[in-house]
Structure formats: structure tokens, C-alpha cells
Amino acid sequence: MDKSSYSDWLINNSIAELVASTGLPVNISDAYQDPRFDAEADQFSGFHIRSVLCVPIWNSNHQIIGVAQVLNRLDGKPFDDADQRLFEAFVIFCGLGINNTIMYDQVKKSWAKQSVALDVLSYHATCSKTEVDKFKAANIPLVCELGIDKLSFDDFSLDVDAMVTASLRMFMELGMVQKFKIDYETLCRWLLTVRKNYRMVLYHNWRHAFNVCQCMFSMLTTAGFQETLTEMEILALIVGCICHDLDHRGTNNAFQAKTGSALSLLYGTSATLEHHHFNHAVMILQSEIQRVYLCHCHLHANELRSSFTPSKSVFTDQQKDKY
Fold this sequence. Notes:
Blueprint: H1 3-12, H2 14-22, E1 26-28, H3 39-45, E2 52-58, E3 64-71, H4 81-125, H5 129-137, H6 143-146, H7 160-173, H8 176-179, H9 184-196, H10 206-222, H11 225-228, H12 231-243, H13 253-258, H14 262-267, H15 272-286, H16 298-307
Antiparallel strand pairs: 1-2, 2-3
Helix pairs in contact: 1-3, 5-9, 7-10, 10-12, 12-16
InterPro entries: GAF (IPR003018), GAF-like_dom_sf (IPR029016), HD/PDEase_dom (IPR003607), PDEase (IPR023088), PDEase_catalytic_dom (IPR002073), PDEase_catalytic_dom_sf (IPR036971), PDEase_CS (IPR023174)
Keywords: cGMP, Hydrolase, Metal-binding
Active site: 204
């Protein structure tokens, strides 16, 4: 029999259409004696059909996603109840396979959409080259001039731009630029991008992020913590502090959960905002513009990623903490 003719019969056969529309299995012992069977199509195909067993294929939502059909039992007898039960059990796995294929395709499309969205977000969330050039050429005051090594430091003594230069000084003073061979222009761009990604909310804003980072810097340099930590841990702490409230919405986790916000649906945890801050920080660090976590060395980048985890992100849920 010609394969194309047989395929045409399968596509156009009325039994499959009936099962797909009703959701009920059809077991025909003598096809030519059953009014549901299209004998003319059988004669056209040149393939003589004696018996037909056709069952629906369901997905996990109990929706029909296909039909499966077998023709002519090998011994010439009609399909019995045992055959039907076995076939119905078999098509469960067919349904799983089809459903998984559909889900995989949906995941691929979702991933592609997310990738495009992140590319667009990364482009618009990044600071301009003019800003980078301005800070790259600026003279960075010394620690003693800024007073950032003191726990009593008043961050309101600095404006938003001065906080960026003070952040640059902290990286340099801790030896991070030299140790990890951080490109200075990239560091400027990264800090400015981080600043841009803090929203103009009342408390969890860029000034708060700088304040936490300066407090950590003071503890590292004056309380002796610098001697007990590895250089990678110090870098992770500084990066974690400056990024710990990125894209904060000015509300707490309870608000996110009760309003059913997109963030709570996405992360589905009691620490919704903390996970979002972490993921937003990683997105900025991973962006091509930032050149792999600010470092040219892939080994350092991987070490920083393992050191910089949500557990090291400062917890600032207003409901549970007074930060």
C-alpha cells in the first residue's frame, strides 16, 4: 500500500474524529458492518480494515490532545476488553510524552521572551557613557578626607554623586581593584548602574545601600574583620551590601504576598524581595556590559558567584527587621 494514501486515510478517518469530539473510546469488531466506519475511504486506500480500536489521549488537565488508533489484530480476531484496557494504559504514556513536548516548547518560548526582556532591561538599566567618563576622570578623595572609615560617619554629608566616588574609594582601599584586576571603567559603570537600579523610595534607596556598604567598610577596616576574612569574602560582602536592596518597591514581603504581586507569584517564598534583590544583582553582574562580575578572570567570577548568595544578602523586611 502507498504510504501517502494510508496517511491520508488516517488524517481523514471519521472514527478518530468521533473519538476526538466525544472523548469516548471506540472498539469496532467488524468495520464494514458498523455505520460509523467510512467504507469508501477504506476502498480508496486499498488497505482492508477489519477491526478498529481508537481511544482518546488526555493531558493532565483532562483535555483531549490527540487520539491513538490500532487496526486489525494480528490473529484476525476483533479487539477485546483486555486489548482496550492495555491500549488505554499505553496511551497514558503517549499523553505524558505529548504534554511534555508541548510544555518544553512553551518553556523554550518563555525563555526566549525572558532573554529578550533581560536584554532590553539591561540596555535601559545601564548608565550612560557620559556618566562613566565623568567618574572615570574624577579625583577620588582619600578615606581620611571622606571619613568613611568611622562608624559615626554621616552619609548625609555626601550627595548622590559623592556616594559613588566614596564607593570607588572603598573598593580601592580594600585592594579589590588590584587583587582581582577589576577594570576601573567597568567598576565605575557597574556602580552607576547599581545606583540607577535603586528606586526613588523613602528608605530602601541608593543612600541606604551606600550607608550599609560604608558600615561594612568601617567594620572591615577598623574592627579587624579584614584580617579574618579572605579577599573573595570581602569582595562578596562589599558587593552584597551595595546591592542588597536593588529595585526595592518600598513595601515589605507581607504586602507583596497579600496583594498577589508579580514578584510574589514569581518567587513564591516568604523572602520575596530578598530573592528579587539577589536576582537583580546577579542580572547586572552577569550582563555582558559588566564583563563577568567586574573581573577579567573567570575563576574569580565563579568564586564570587559562590560567595555572593541570598544567605549573605542583608535581610531588610520591614515587618521583621528595624534596619
